[in-house]
Amino acid sequence: MTEKSKAEKAEAARQERLAREAAALRENLRRRKQQSRARADAPAAPPVPDAAAEDGAKS
Known about the structure:
Layout: H1 6-41, H2 51-55
């Protein structure tokens, strides 16, 4: 077995880092799609009352 050169080790580390980043991006995309579907399937929430209207303040 031969010793890897510094350049080969650096390239291997770079490839591993890129693979981890790609996996993280895929996971984030999957999670965002899942959240988007959940929001689309959820019933519409009632509107949030305006704080000024609650205080009786008028514009």
